[in-house]
Structures are given as structure tokens and as C-alpha cells.
Specification:
The protein is α+β, with helices and mostly antiparallel strands and 289 residues long. It is 19% helix and 40% strand.
Length: 289
């Protein structure tokens, strides 16, 4: 599929601020099933932008605005082509136990919720989704998250934990992704958090342009024909990730891939407005040659 994406973020400060330093992770990644053909960033006030890849390979755009200002806008536009990933293979657990798998999984195997209050509930989920193959386990976990938890906005926030989701019984995509990561890692499956966009309109008919939210899902390292492969899964929608998912980057959790992170100097509060518009340009396009 061929998408045009616009991500517009605007800040209004109630008093002048200065030395406004920001790091953006907003450029769609290029992968085996995704290609970013065009990308542009417009800032107001204008600023010089530097680029680098972070530890996990996500492109980071950094800029600073030194002079006093009361408004700031970040206007991101991209053209992306996606295609469906190959169907995951039904391989057993043998490969997951190999040293080569543990080396490939690295830090994405570490379940770092040491102070989890509801550890017994997570352990119960680990046992209940265990199947004969890792891919079947991943699919079962996707379904379990949708069955047990409600999608509700306003009940969690950026800093919410897995315990908050388990306490409240509801949350948003970020919360579902963090829970899925924890269950997979406790199952011995390496898993990473993915940030991006999701085209949620019907594939046949419907609108060709719509406002969406930034989205979160996971990628699990599953046995392949010769070596393990990363497979995307979207627990919010009980499905594997496909051509309607546009990836920006990945990390251990949300804090590794926030779209925008910044600080400024001044005694001021800010009003933030942000919106993402996705337009479907050519549903027949493919990222593969």
C-alpha cells in the first residue's frame, strides 16, 4: 500500500521560552516490507536539524531553538510504501532454546518488571497462552489481551505500568504492547516495542484519508527456516502486523521510541495539540520489486 502521512504537532506556551531542545523519532523506517520514498520536516520557528541513528537503529532528528518564542510547530510529511510480510512458519520451541537464539534476542529477552505487584497474574497468562509453537503462542496472547482488557482512553498515561493496566482492566495500545512484551519475555520469546502508525480504514471502499493516532505494537523473535525472524503482532487489534502498519522504530519499551521528547528554559506551561493524517494513495503498490 502507498501512504501519504502528515504528523503535525503544535505547542502554545503561556510565556516566552528559550533553549527549546527536542529529539524527534518520526521518520518511517525502511525494512524488507516498507520503504520511505519521501520525507520532510518543517519547523516554526526555523532551526537547524541534525540526524543520527540511535542505539536501536531508529533515526533521530534533533534541533534547538535558542531565541525566545511562544509558539512552536513541527510539521512532518512522508510517503511510504508497504507490503504484506511473509506468513510466519509453524516451527517448534527447539530453536528458542539455542544459544544462537539467545544471542539474537539479547536484551529483548529480559523481563524488566522486577517490582511488578501482579506477577502471579502475569504468570497465569504465560501458562494459559502456551501452545505447541511460538507463533501459535503469540496468536493466543494477542487474542487473550483483547478478551481480558478494554480499550479505554484517559485511564492510563505515558508513564503507566503493566500493574496499572492489570488494576484498571483497560488502557490503550501502549499498555497492551507493554503487557504483551512482558508475557512473551517471561515465555522465553524475545520481544520489542514498536512505534508507528496504523491505517484503520476498510481495505475495500471507505475513506482514502483519515485522522489516526500514533500506534504501538510488538515484534517477537520467532523461529524461521534457517534463523529466527522478527514478526510483528498488534495485541490491540488481535492480529499480526501487516501492510497497514507503518513502522517508525523499535526499542525495549515506549521510553526508547517516543515520537517527541524535549526540554526548554522558562517558567511556562504549554498547550499541546497533535494530529496524524494518513492518506491511501495506491492500495495496489508494493514495497517489493
Amino acid at each position: 500500500m502507498n501512504f501519504a502521512i502528515r504528523y503535525l504537532t503544535e505547542y502554545a506556551y503561556d510565556a516566552p521560552v528559550s533553549d527549546n531542545l527536542n529529539a524527534l523519532r518520526v521518520r518511517p523506517a525502511t525494512t524488507s516490507t516498507q520503504r520511505c520514498d519521501e520525507f520532510s520536516l518543517r519547523l516554526d520557528p526555523e532551526a537547524r536539524v541534525s540526524r543520527h541513528a540511535d542505539y536501536f537503529g531508529t533515526e533521530v532528528l534533533e534541533f534547538g531553538i535558542a531565541k525566545p518564542h511562544e509558539n512552536m510547530s513541527i510539521d512532518v510529511r512522508a510517503r511510504v510504501v508497504t507490503s504484506e510480510p511473509p506468513e510466519p512458519l509453524e516451527r517448534g520451541w527447539d530453536q528458542v532454546g539455542m544459544a544462537s537464539y539467545r544471542e539474537a534476542g539479547g536484551e529483548f529477552l529480559i523481563a524488566d518488571e522486577d517490582r511488578l505487584r501482579h506477577s502471579d497474574q502475569v504468570d497465569e497468562m504465560v501458562a494459559s497462552v502456551r501452545r505447541n509453537t511460538p507463533i501459535a503462542t503469540l496468536r493466543a496472547l494477542d487474542s487473550l489481551v483483547v478478551e481480558r482488557f478494554d480499550y479505554r482512553t484517559g485511564v492510563t498515561y505515558v508513564g503507566s505500568t503493566v500493574d496499572d493496566l492489570l488494576d484498571g482492566g483497560g488502557g490503550v495500545c501502549q499498555d497492551f504492547a507493554h503487557l504483551t512484551l512482558l508475557v512473551l519475555r517471561r515465555s522465553g520469546i524475545a520481544a520489542r516495542y514498536v512505534s508507528g502508525y496504523l491505517w484503520a480504514a476498510p481495505t475495500d471502499g471507505g475513506s482514502d484519508s483519515m485522522e489516526v493516532q500514533t500506534h504501538a505494537w510488538v515484534e517477537a523473535l520467532l523461529p524461521g527456516a534457517r534463523e529466527p525472524v522478527w514478526v510483528g503482532a498488534d495485541p490491540t487489534n488481535d492480529r499480526l502486523a501487516g501492510e497497514t502498519h507503518v513502522k517508525i522504530g523499535h526499542g525495549r519499551n515506549y521510553s526508547d521510541v517516543p515520537p517527541i521528547k524535549g526540554v526548554f528554559q522558562g517558567r511556562s506551561s504549554s498547550l499541546l495539540s497533535s494530529r496524524v493524517t494518513m492518506s491511501r494513495l495506491d492500495p495496489a503498490a508494493s514495497a517489493r520489486p
